[in-house]
Amino acid sequence: MTISGVSTASGVGSLGGQKKELDQEAFLQILVTQLSGQNPFEPVSDKELFQQLATLTSVQGINELRHTMALSRAQGMLGHKIDFYDSYGEQRSGVVTKIVFSGKGVMLDVDGLSVSPDKVIQDYGPPK
Length: 128
Description:
Layout: E1 5-8, H1 24-36, H2 46-77, E2 81-85, E3 91-102, E4 105-110, E5 113-115, E6 120-125
Helix pairs in contact: 1-2
């Protein structure tokens, strides 16, 4: 069994070009649009602006935490034999040989297949 480690996928992007979550970039675009379109005689209050910036910080922190947790879970399965559902919903087995970062997030490489950690049914640990 060869374990090649962690790699990144090229062409990182979102599924079908559509984002499912409000990320930092999208939030900043909304904020800039709002600020550029506001009435100069009735500007957004400091309180509202600080609330929006706090929301941005929270969104960023939650996304970083989610990514860290997914990476930690994936690292724990590296080299382990697992049962998982493939993209067709079929149950399969294999050994996790590396971790890949893609537009779909942290993925496991199992015998050349890209598997989401959420699709893992059973983790048997390292093969004996």
